[in-house]
Amino acid sequence: MLLGGLCAATLAAMPSSAFAATPRNARTPEQAIAYLNQQRASYGIPPVTLDQSLLKPECNLANHEIAASFSPSEFPWGAYVSPWSNAPWHEQILFDPSDVAAAYGVYSHFGQEAVLGARGAHWVCMWFSHDWSQSGPPRFYWVSEASGPKAVPASLGAYEWPSTPAQDLGLPNPTGPNISVYALGAAATQPEAVATTVVGPSGQTVPTHLIAKYPHAAMLVVDRPLQEGTSYSVTVTWRGYFGPNPPEVVDQIQSFAFTTAREIRSQLKLLNGGRKGGRNRVWISSNEVLGDQKAELSVAVAQRRCGRQLKRPRPGCLWITTRRQTKTIVLSAAKIAMFAPTPSPRRRVHVRVAVKRFRNEEGFVKGAGASLQLR
Fold first, then answer.
1. Tell me, what's the pLDDT at 73?
2. Alpha-carbon dihedral sign for residues 244, 249, 251, 254
3. What is the pTM of this model?
4. Which end of the chain has fewer CB atoms < 10 Å from its terminal CB, N or C?
5. Backbone torsion region of residue 188, taken as left when φ is above 0, otherwise alpha when ψ lies between -120 and 50, otherwise beta
């Protein structure tokens, strides 16, 4: 569940002991801000500093700026993904170039979770301070997802509360990219994005809509999914007080380009490496795109049981799984070895390695799996 809003007040941070123990795989505030600044830098957006004095003693519907629930077993923040991926209004706040500092906290509950239907989830919440009076000439920024300008999702099935840009516009899900655009600068007083054009590789104009919720920012929604692995150029017309003193209302043009993400094939192989030290050795190999990626390793042992050895005695024999172990491993572009129990005529060993679909700097890497049965 993803929640977004603007709060008017800030409170001093409570000591860390005031918060419930967080899941082992949750990011620290320092890690979260490092990921955030890496993602902001990929779009040329200035970094933020960590300021935990902005943190609240609890996170709830009334006081949060952006919040997201997550399963304790999976925490969605990395180099190319944030807890607010697929939530464009939330990411518009997260990547706002007027942000100068941010607070980050992980909470064991959200104030209205019973209403929002997220029982048992943990929550990550953030608050920001802004510099609304940034000096200098007008400056323009844009952002579309944490994956970066060379891996913008071609199709976006947005999901957030209370509504997505597509819902606000009455467009069906999924749409094409949802792109946040911003205008900053001392002379850029209350600018408004009034027109936009998105052009594809063959010169065709792509249907779009503009919608705004916050000052100095607008959301550009591409009506329909785009082609994968394709470059597009964008122009946005901003109307505001951009002129010299005394200021006058003029139009300024923002221009940029992006490339949609492509599907990247991944590959996993398991090979029987023979016995060593009385146990069977299994080689795990993967292609380069999976290097340093986490995968789930499962080893299951099945026993051959017959007749009265079965819980429900019956003629003949069956293979019954008697033991299963699962752990997380880190893959490598080179082969790595692991050991499995030695099979026998009455025991089989089944090894499986699986990696889920994930994002990188070029697009979406397909999930992969490989199995090997030792007999």
1. 61
2. positive
3. 0.76
4. C
5. beta
